[in-house]
Please model this.
Amino acid sequence: MKLDDNGLLIRNASLNFLLQKSHSNRFLGCLLAGFSLFISVSLPAQQAADPEDLIAQEEDYYSIVDIPIPDGIELEVGGLAVIPDGSLGVATRRGEVWLIENPYMTGSRIPRFSRFASGLHEPLGLAYHEGSLYTSQRSELTRLTDKTGNREADAYETVVSWPLSGNYHEYSYGPLFTPEGDMLITLNLGWIGHGASLAKWRGWMMNVAPDGEMIPVASGMRSPAGFGYNAEGDVFYTENQGDWVGSGRITHVEKGDFVGNPEGLVWSHLEESPVKLKPEDIPDTGQPMSKVAADIPGFKTPAVWLPHGLMGISTSAILTDQSGGAFGPFTDQLFVGDQGHSKIVRVYLEKVNGVYQGVAFPFREGFSSGILRMVWGKDASLFVGMTSRGWGSTGKDPFGLQRLVWTGKVPFEIKTVKAKPDGFELEFTLPVKESVAKNPDSYQLSSFNYKYHHNYGSPVIELEDLDVRAAIVAEDGLSVRLVVDDLKKGYIHEINASGIKSETGMDLLHAAGYYTLNEIPAGEKVKLSVVDNSPVNSHQGHQNSDGSTSKKEVSAATSAAARTKNSPKRMTEMPESWSDGPDQTIVVGTKPGLKYDLDNFEVKAGSKVKVTFNNNDDMMHNLVIVQPNTAIEVGEMALEMGLKGSQNDYIPDSDKVLYHTNILSPETSETIYFEAPAVPGEYTYVCTFPGHAYVMQGIMKVVK
Model:
């Protein structure tokens, strides 16, 4: 949201309504801000019961501070950079670069904005280097320099330019400076109903020397909006769900890598290309990516998958915590932003057999708009830059700038997960209660994967429950070794420790994480007693009811209601009894910004209705007609479906759902038939794809 001069606002879900009312009353705003800060520091955390409760609970440990944006400035953030004098540089999608003095709001507490540059073409990155700011516009990498000291760029210099086809989807990102002083940029694919490399090097990461020489580094990228270094100095990039991309992910990138989307390989025949694969070398079988890549040299699979809908829907910025503990207990871990879900997830990486892999956890929700950029402040707080135009986000504001500040309290979290030859080792931020931590029933594990194919996204496939045979608690209570049957190399493993409590009785702030197991380490396995499954020379085991192990497979088939044609809620063939056809035919499409192109339509009560839904957007949608005033409730039910959501087209099993299409890929359509409700009223149609329900709605008005 935008504020005038209210000063410091720290969000707390229980005060949202009053804080919104405070916009027109400066005294009330400041009073409530202080009261919110008192509450966030003073109240103990409780187990979250719903999304708002979770946000309020997260606030106890990491507070979101609004940076007031002056009226008239459309700060749709495309890039962030901290300047040596303490100012914050902000590039906007509107083509401007702003300098913000006192972004920490110390002293007068009011930041001061000055425009540094303008007239740029949607810059989506910003970096400071040796007295200049660098940004990637659509068609070039630009150096901006203030030569007179008046805090305004006097020189706009093209470092290097690249061709464009004119397609709207050809975003350009960066730069990221290398230790040698070169710059890395990434180039988005175009969109023509599917991703396409319509101009040279689209879908690639490129290296740019200070003199402008540009050489390709790696290919296979679709929408590489974020990239950065891990603690070891290796480069990782973030990818968004789309064609050939089953879910969001982060991937380690080295020269010569192919990372998944074959569209950019149309340029691999060029002499300067370090990637020699051709588009026809990539099979389109729908097998998991790990299985396909095993037979293709140079095919780099993700280090960590971010399960769609659970860890966000559109990954963005990537940043490493190198604060040395000043930002909390997660030093050297990665923080990854999500544009669609307006949140940040946390990633712990390890290297096994020379390959990166690791685990992703939820971290902080409740930001005001869609997160695109993050940068560390000089005080170890995290600046978060946001935008939602054209892309939509759960945060309702069109743009925003906020800081994330650690309160100094340590949350009870799973700090790290490390792969073992026979399971995983969980490290906690606080000692666990041994009586529950040693019980294998306190943990639920499963493995799953995604299809690797040209289609947009993927349902969860091969979902399988795993048996936890033993849980061994360390003497200090800070770690637990889990012995797990049937680890699957190349698969994502959900690890849920919701049964765990700390020594003081706290529940985990976030109980579930998702570990991508690219490699299974060698080493000694835990020896278990064949009698009771307890670890040898230890009493910290658990006896199965029959002394055996079992493997429970969860059906990968979707529910009958969601998939079967002519089910009561999804009739895709006209009923034979409709001899005269439908009474009314409605066609609904989409338009940018998570919107239907038809805001409302009217039908008669009890009439026969035919609705055709055309998904002409560049992301997945459905159309679900629900009971009046239940759209958000149904959307949140879809979010709570977890891993089974994609298998069931995000259609909750609820009587609040009246009629629906399945989830549709871009450039596809589906027609459904139904009898309009007998009771007049305003029935909402809503997209229940994770996060879309908050904004993507229309009204079916039923009249007598």
